[in-house]
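Appendix B, example 12.
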Amino acid sequence: MEFTKNLAKVDSRLVPIDGKTVRGVASQFGDSPLHIVSAFCKNNMLTLCQETVNDKSNEITAIPALIDLLDLKNCIVTIDAMGCQKDIAEKIIEKGGGYILQVKDNQKDLKEQIEKIFNRQKTKNENVELDTGHGRIEKRICKVIDDLTFLDGKQDWKGLKTIVLIQSEIYQKQTQKKSESIRYYISSEEANSKQLAQDIRGHWSIENNLHWNLDVIFKEDFQLKRKGNSSENFNMILKLGLGMLDAEKSKKRSKPIKRLIASIDDSYREKLMGL
């Protein structure tokens, strides 16, 4: 179901795409959980469009359908490893956009090549960020290489310009434990480590500002809807509601408090709905 074809143009550089399984419901596919793949507008905090599939593995077929609905000119699409596919990269470029795709073991040969390049080739373009809060200290290092001479098959990835390494080092103050993780990406963007680090981090907006809110504020996973398309339809209504709550800035309150006020105040509810 498409919300809009052109909303991605509105104050939006970054368009994260990701899927969420709605547990506790039945879908048109039977008793299997509903899995919905959404394209999200980071700046406007709105869902642009969505596709329903019967399980996570079918995100590969849903993502191209979403891309067809969007005007991606001058936009950057971010997708996790499930969407790291040659035809998806090509479709994004053909739609006028750029991409940042996470590379994991589903592209094993590509991942191994990227690891070797970062181990053997010195990186000149790096960005370091330090984040303190929530009882921890996190150091994030973004390294970018645009010399892809030794990357076999690079011509098969349309528009490919850079490979990216994100190294995260986390120190938990209470337990005094350290952990480290390394993630790899391919991108059609120029070798700007600061911007790439920002865009990769921005991908989590679809998790933090959409999926988390659906689960925690609207308790979507605990709503038992089984008849027809009710679960999918209600998912779209919840997303519209989240967009209204995000857009309303007159009250400096949390979303749950705004919902409560709207339930008992007709004038505020009309304001939320733009009536």
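Residues 1-11 have pLDDT under 50 and may be disordered. Residues 18 and 238 are 17 Å apart (CA to CA).
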